[in-house]
Amino acid sequence: MNGPSARLAAATGLLFAALFVAALVLLHRAPGLADPDTRYAAFQAGGGDGLLVAVGLYLVPLAGIAFLWHMTAMRALLDTLTPTPAAMAHGLNLLSGVLFVAMLFAATAAVAAPALASSLGNAPPVEPQVARALTAVGYALFFVFAVRGAGMFAITTTTLLRAGGVLPGPVAVLGYLLAAFLLLTASTDPAAALVLPAWVVLVAASLLVHARRAPAAVAAEPAPS
């Protein structure tokens, strides 16, 4: 296995997880679907939470870029493994990762649009009914579409890394369980979004361990006579 590629994939994965969780914490300060109209009106009237949500919105593109970087480094690593990754799984891995980032951008733009408007200062407050509709659109884009793309990316990546001997059996099983949750969950609880960075951290830790062990294993092989 290519050690530098593995370390780059791990580092960019950890960067994505940190940025994604930070953005999620800030975006969570925006009103949710279960909140009353008075909560939406108060959110538009106050400036503090709106500014924090706007900061979270600006963190999301950085998290998306880190994920694309992680995905590209991961695919470069997969190309060095033996056996060669299956073409179908390799293609699904690329498409699902791009789908996740695109849906993530669209979802957070919808949820944070009222906060961005209020933080600009010169924009009129968004009506509670409009803000709730935008929140519903954002939740649908993220929890119905983006999370499914993330689940497919996690399943294909776990399968390819397991086939290449990078992930040990117990780690692969845990990776499959987290990926299955992303594919099958119907929850709109923001805490459910933490499953993806948890999977990324799990895989990143495994890559770092495998990259450290690989040179020792190569050095231990007997020289050809």
List the SSEs and their pairings.
Elements: H1 3-27, H2 37-45, H3 48-78, H4 87-120, H5 128-163, H6 169-184, H7 195-220
Textual characterization of the structure:
The protein has 225 residues and is mainly α. The protein has one domain (3-215). The protein is built from seven helices and no strands. The longest helix is centred in the middle third of the chain and has 36 residues, at 128-163. Mean pLDDT is 87; it is low at 216-221. Keywords: Membrane, Transmembrane, Transmembrane helix. The chain crosses the membrane at residues 50-71, 92-116, 136-155, 167-185, 191-209. This is DUF4386 family protein. It comes from Pseudonocardia parietis.
Question: Can you summarize this structure?
Answer:
By secondary structure, this protein is mainly alpha-helical. The protein contains seven helices and no strands.
Looking at how many chains there are and whether they match, the oligomeric state comes to single chain
- What average pLDDT do the residues reach? 87
Given the structure, what is the number of helices?
7
* Rg calculated over all Cα atoms: 20 Å
Write down the domain tally.
1
| Biggest sheet details | none
Shape: elongated
Q: List low-pLDDT spans.
A: 216-221
Question: N- to C-terminal separation?
Answer: 24 Å
Q: Strand-residue fraction?
A: under 5%
- Return the string of H and E elements: HHHHHHH
Specify the structural class: mainly alpha
Total number of β-strand segments?
0
As a percent range, the share of helical residues equals: over 70%
